[in-house]
Amino acid sequence: xxxxxxxxxxxxxxxxxxxxxxxxxxxxxxxxxxxxxxxxxxxxxxxxxxxxxxxxxxxxxxxxxxxxxx
Length: 70
Known about the structure:
Layout: E1 4-9, E2 12-17, H1 22-28, E3 36-40, E4 43-45, E5 60-65
Parallel strand pairs: 1-5
Antiparallel strand pairs: 1-2, 3-4, 3-5
């Protein structure tokens, strides 16, 4: 049976499946991994690790999207 994880994304409660990576979560949220920075539990996550890091129960994520302007 698949376990559901509860976590916080930008202050909002979310649920995802156990074993979900940061990269997979970004896909679920339709967010381009090349245009964001992620803080997980008060630590900046290097983009090169998005596919390797698996989310855990209670994780607190802050996802900041880069926007261009002029």
